[in-house]
TrEMBL record:
Keywords: Acyltransferase, Lipid metabolism, Pyridoxal phosphate, Sphingolipid metabolism, Transferase. Pathway: Lipid metabolism; sphingolipid metabolism; Sphingolipid metabolism. One of its GO terms (biological process) is sphingosine biosynthetic process. It comes from Microbotryum lychnidis-dioicae (strain p1A1 Lamole / MvSl-1064) (Anther smut fungus). One of its GO terms (cellular component) is endoplasmic reticulum. This is serine C-palmitoyltransferase.
């Protein structure tokens, strides 16, 4: 019985034994063919040696790499329309259900709704000036809605003439006929724009003339001109101060200076706003650290950065004290006169003229042609080496289009009007009425108890803050509450024919906390009676709005 059953088993064994050598021969021939084929590929021998050495040192790694290759091949080869194959498990909706879902769907807003303090901005019809015609929107109207734009031609929205205390037209040169004639003549000759950066083909003769005019006006060796006021100081700082350098800066500096300091990546030391004893303590502390760590003053660059008139509160720098500390501790000074050049001083030369300090002693003096000259752009004044360095290293100069020629001519003409050989007591000088206008407005505001003014006495940039007094309010006002009250004052003044504005800040990016305030720009273009009228309207609005908030 056993013989018949064992015969098939022997036959199967014989069959396997006969095919096994054939498989081995096939494998060897295939391997030899692959080896011959791959050997013809450049660099294959290096790859094979790497694989053999890798397998010999770490066999597990070979297995892992094979699995990885298999995964890549499988991922590449698999179908990408798998969702359609499994669609049988999806819930099938009727057309009616789809329509209902579409009707109920509400898209999320791309941006949060704008707060009331930023809504309903007034629109000036025509050119700005001391007495512009302004359109105020009706509540709920969006000036940026293309379907419901402001109607500036007919009906009640034709606008009304207001006294402008919002524009930085301190010298009253905006709309000046003499400047307009020069600008029109330049427009006919050069066209509208410069069509290129200064380092290539954007520089015209009028640009070089403006730089010479400003240099002569300030009595400095050289000046470089920028096409945008904000980017001037934010480019000057990082073009000189780099990683490892030291910057000592006032906490009250404006947003453009903050950005420049941030871009520089320097070591920053802040001193309290307007506290020059704190400034000296910081400089002395750095001096002690130099001795402790045996650092040489010449190993890195060191700067003191401050403003002439501070944009955030209108206060003025104690320039003689800063100059004393600068020389004592061997620092360079970067002075931002964006809000003081063309504004203060007997002839508008800024805080250096106020304190009778030669401008050449300031290492880098930055100014704006927008506030003092009613043009646009900015400049940096200093010695020839300082200016030459910026022409190839300052991003705001190298990578920006040059100032339009007509605006350069306008600034040059404004400089010539400020350069007349007379002081501010002469009626011919554009700034002559400004001190009296500032004094008249401050005299009226001095009787308003719920407010305080941190601005300097001579500053035409006046900030009005709500007084932080427990006797006036049941609890301290939040920043949002203060801004709402100040916006109410702005709207109340607008109803009475006076245009004022709040200080608008990007709170999310401000490096320092500043108090909400009204920003008043006193102009020399209004008469003293007009300033007194505007001041009384502002006083009435402040008393009316803030009285309702008292406890």
């Amino acid at each position: 019985m056993s013989a018949p059953t064992s015969a098939p088993s022997n036959a199967g064994t014989t069959s396997v034994a006969s095919t096994l050598p054939e498989l081995i021969v096939l494998f060897n021939s295939t391997w030899a063919t692959l080896g011959a084929w791959t050997s013809s590929i450049p660099g294959s021998q290096v790859a094979w040696r790497y694989i053999k050495a890798s397998h010999q040192d770490d066999p597990f790694r070979t297995v892992l790499e094979l699995l990885l290759v298999f995964f890549i091949v499988r991922t590449y080869a698999q179908s990408r329309t798998k969702g359609e194959q499994s669609g049988k498990n999806f819930v099938k909706l009727t057309e009616k259900e789809i329509d209902e879902l579409v009707h109920e769907w509400q898209p999320e807003a791309l941006l949060p709704p704008a707060p009331r303090t930023t809504q309903y901005p007034p629109v000036i019809i025509g050119a700005t000036g001391p007495r512009p015609r302004v359109v105020f929107p009706t509540p709920g109207q969006d000036p940026h809605d293309p379907l419901q734009p402001y109607d500036v031609t007919t009906g009640a929205n034709q606008g009304k003439v207001v006294l402008n205390l919002a524009s930085s037209n301190f010298a009253g040169l905006a709309g000046n006929e003499r400047i307009k004639d020069k600008a029109v003549a330049c427009l006919k000759r050069y066209g509208v724009g410069s069509c290129g950066p200064p380092g290539f083909y954007g520089t015209f003769d009028v640009h070089m003339e403006l730089e010479r005019d400003i240099a002569a006006f300030l009595s400095v060796p050289s000046v470089i001109m920028y096409s945008h006021s904000f980017s001037t100081i934010s480019s000057v700082i990082p073009s000189f101060s780099k990683r490892g350098d030291i910057i000592v800066a006032d906490r009250g500096v404006n947003f453009a200076i903050q950005k420049g300091i941030q871009i520089s990546r320097s070591n920053i030391r802040w001193y309290d706003h307007g506290d020059y004893e704190a400034l000296e303590r910081i400089l002395e502390q750095i001096h002690k650290e130099d001795k402790k760590y045996k650092r040489k003053v010449t190993n890195g660059r060191r700067f003191i950065i401050t403003e002439g008139i501070f944009e955030n509160d209108g206060s003025m720098v104690d320039l003689p004290k800063v100059m004393e500390l600068k020389h004592k501790y061997k620092y360079r000074l970067i002075l931002d006169e964006t809000w003081s050049f063309g504004v203060v001083g007997k002839t508008g030369r800024g805080v250096t003229e106020v304190f009778d300090i030669p401008t050449a002693e300031v290492d880098m003096l930055v100014g704006s042609m927008a506030n003092g000259l009613s043009s646009t752009g900015g400049f940096c004044a200093g010695n020839k080496e300082v200016v030459a360095h910026q022409r190839i290293n300052s991003p705001g100069f190298v990578f920006s289009a040059a100032l339009p020629p007509l605006l350069a001519v306008s600034a040059s003409e404004a400089i010539s009007m400020l350069s007349i050989p007379a002081n501010m007591t002469s009626p011919a000088h554009p700034l002559a009425p400004l001190p009296d206008n500032v004094a008249a407005l401050r005299k009226i505001l001095a009787s308003v108890k719920p407010i305080e003014i941190p601005s300097a006495e001579m500053s035409p940039l006046i900030h009005i803050c709500i007084r932080d007094d427990d006797k006036l309010y049941s609890k301290p006002l939040t920043r949002e509450e203060q801004e709402k009250l100040l916006q109410d004052v702005v709207e109340q003044c607008a109803e009475n024919g006076v245009l004022v504005t709040r200080s608008k800040r990007n709170w999310a990016q401000e490096m320092m906390e500043h108090r909400p305030s009204l920003r008043i720009c006193v102009t020399a273009a209004l008469t003293k009676k007009e300033i007194e009228k505007a001041g009384n309207m502002l006083k009435s609005a402040l008393n009316k709005v803030l009285a309702g908030k008292k406890k």
